């Protein structure tokens, strides 16, 4: 039944969303259908307007490229310093310096200024200025940006040059020389001496027709459209077609200049030169506009549906937001965040739920705090009880040793044992503290070891490996002695026993280690020692482990490793801890 209920479960958000979608779907479909019918009726007019605008843009782009070329020529024409240099007579070394340091850099700058690649040529009447031109075969190919200096004598006999009638303020676009064969056109204007206002040469900027008239995207004019650029005298300058494979003037010659019954013809004058742009768009391509409108209508409907879906989701989220706040607060409580409260907004049922939830949360948090404080007090009491049990345990063992020495008449040893025992208890019972410095804990251990060394006639060898930098930290008192005592009681099986006491740190953890070369123990014995349910075995070790955990947490304590015949290693872990706010270490690190 539970699985069946899950299958039938539909979130409230989805129910609201479906109802919103149903309410908006009908008007979206109706509005979309009406928009499609209205758009198809006016498609012809809109298409013509769009085509005219596209042709104007093409003509405007051509004008912009022409203006760039004119601006490049203006850099040469208006440079009076360059004009004086090109009109003067200089010695060889002066001529070389002027040419390399000013004339050629100015020509290079002017040639690089226009967007299209241009060939800048200066024809000078002054024969004292050296010619500069390219000898490479590609020099006249029209590719790349080039600049050259020639003497006018080279073109003085050309028909096109003799027919030029240029003055100070005139310039012309014309195909001269080999321009027509190379698919080029040149911008011609005189080079003026500003002192005499007389021409001293000719500026010629040659550019490929394709770089000026090429339209990269003919699809804007529609499928099957054709574009012509015709000069002022009817000369054919450029042709482009959206029909693959048509790239000549065949269509222009087959049809009249006014177009045909199958085409819409649009003309736009080019202001930068005596030419016009003629576009012919097949009427059949207008149907493509209708299809585009249909596609656009469908896309708009889908987009509207998507937008309305988003709006529906937003509305659903707005309605369900307070539910989510309640659920989020409950999840926070589940994860242990008992300080979580629900913000109260408005004056409705949700605000009443929020007030009740916050009151319940405050009550639960207070109860948890009371239980937590009680457990802390209980742990502190257990710590004191465990510590009070530790001292009698050691005292009982020591008095047993003193009794044996007294029976044997070893008065001097008895005197030394009692003296070290007094020192031991002076350190242990000092101010009744249960937390002492690691340095004092090691002094307690050393006093105990001295007592045992006297008792066993120097058969105990203890080596200390201590990190002095850790002596200032604090620890639970009386935690090392029980392990040394256990080693002496249970691990001894030879004439001597060796032990090593280590103190070192790994990161923020302090490690104390007691290692012996005694008998060792089996693995099940080690588990029984650390098992809280163990009876009569490992009481002292468990005592130390519990005290460390009570003070520092479950992540610290005692660990054992042993191997029969090799010895036992006991490791005690605790954080770097300083109990009192005194000295450089004043907090738990």
UniProtKB/TrEMBL annotation:
Enzyme nomenclature, EC number: 2.7.13.3
Main location: membrane
SMART domains to which the protein is assigned, alphabetical: HAMP, HATPase_c
Keywords tagged on the record: ATP-binding, Cell membrane, Kinase, Membrane, Nucleotide-binding, Phosphoprotein, Transferase, Transmembrane, Transmembrane helix, Two-component regulatory system
Domain Histidine kinase: 479-578
Top enzyme category: transferase
One cellular-component annotation, GO: plasma membrane
Catalysed reactions, as listed in the record: ATP + protein L-histidine = ADP + protein N-phospho-L-histidine
Protein's name according to its UniProt entry: histidine kinase
Organism: Paenibacillus mucilaginosus 3016
Organism classification: Bacteria, Bacillati, Bacillota, Bacilli, Bacillales
């Amino acid at each position: 039944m539970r699985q069946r209920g899950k299958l039938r479960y539909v979130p409230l958000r989805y129910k609201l969303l479906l109802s919103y979608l149903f309410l908006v779907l009908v008007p979206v479909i109706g509005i979309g259908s009406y928009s499609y019918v209205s758009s198809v009726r006016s498609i012809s007019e809109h298409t013509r307007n769009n085509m005219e605008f596209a042709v104007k843009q093409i003509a405007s782009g051509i004008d912009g490229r022409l203006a760039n070329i004119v601006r490049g020529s203006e850099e040469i024409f208006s440079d009076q310093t360059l004009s004086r240099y090109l009109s003067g007579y200089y010695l060889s070394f002066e001529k070389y310096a002027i040419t390399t340091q000013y004339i050629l850099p100015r020509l290079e700058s002017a040639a690089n200024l226009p967007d299209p690649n241009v060939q800048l040529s200066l024809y000078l009447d002054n024969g004292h200025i050296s010619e500069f031109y390219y000898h490479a075969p590609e020099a006249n190919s029209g590719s790349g940006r080039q600049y050259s200096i020639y003497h006018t004598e080279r073109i003085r006999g050309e028909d096109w040059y003799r027919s030029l009638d240029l003055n100070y303020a005139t310039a012309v676009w014309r195909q001269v020389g080999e321009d027509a064969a190379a698919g080029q056109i040149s911008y011609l204007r005189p080079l003026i001496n500003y002192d005499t206002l007389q021409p001293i040469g000719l500026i010629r900027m040659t550019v490929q027709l394709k770089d000026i008239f090429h339209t990269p995207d003919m699809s804007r004019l529609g499928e099957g459209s054709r574009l012509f650029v015709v000069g002022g005298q009817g000369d054919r300058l450029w042709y482009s077609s959206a029909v693959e494979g048509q790239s000549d003037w065949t269509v222009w010659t087959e049809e009249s200049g006014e177009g045909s019954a199958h085409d819409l013809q649009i003309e736009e004058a080019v202001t930068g030169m005596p030419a016009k742009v003629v576009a012919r768009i097949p009427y059949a391509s207008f149907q493509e506009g209708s299809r585009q409108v249909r596609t656009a209508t469908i896309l708009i409907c889908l987009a509207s549906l998507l937008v309305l879906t988003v709006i529906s989701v937003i509305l659903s989220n707005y309605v369900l937001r307070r539910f989510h706040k309640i659920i989020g607060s409950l999840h926070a409580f589940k994860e242990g965040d008992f300080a979580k409260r629900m913000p109260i907004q408005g004056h409705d049922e949700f605000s009443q739920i929020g007030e009740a939830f916050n009151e319940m949360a405050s009550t639960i948090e207070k109860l948890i705090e009371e239980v937590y404080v009680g457990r802390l007090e209980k742990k502190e009491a257990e710590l004191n009880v465990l510590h009070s049990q530790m001292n009698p345990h050691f005292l009982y063992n020591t008095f047993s040793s003193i009794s044996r020495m007294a029976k044997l008449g070893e008065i001097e040893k008895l005197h030394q044992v009692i003296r070290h025992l007094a020192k031991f208890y002076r350190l242990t019972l000092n101010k009744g503290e249960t937390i002492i410095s690691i340095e004092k804990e090691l002094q307690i251990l050393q006093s105990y070891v001295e007592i045992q060394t006297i008792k066993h006639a120097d058969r105990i060898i203890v080596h200390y490996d201590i990190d002095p930098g850790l002596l200032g930290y604090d620890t639970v008192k009386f935690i090392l002695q029980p392990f040394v005592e256990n080693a002496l009681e249970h691990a001894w099986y030879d004439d001597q026993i060796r032990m090593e006491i280590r103190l070192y740190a790994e990161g923020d953890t302090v490690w104390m280690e007691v290692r012996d070369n005694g008998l060792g123990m089996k693995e099940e014995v080690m588990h029984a020692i650390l098992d809280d349910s163990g009876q009569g075995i490992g009481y002292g070790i468990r005592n130390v482990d519990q005290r460390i955990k009570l003070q520092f947490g479950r992540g610290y304590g005692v660990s054992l490793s042993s191997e029969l015949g090799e010895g036992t290693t006991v490791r005690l872990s605790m954080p770097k801890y300083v109990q009192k706010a005194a000295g450089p270490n004043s907090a738990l690190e």
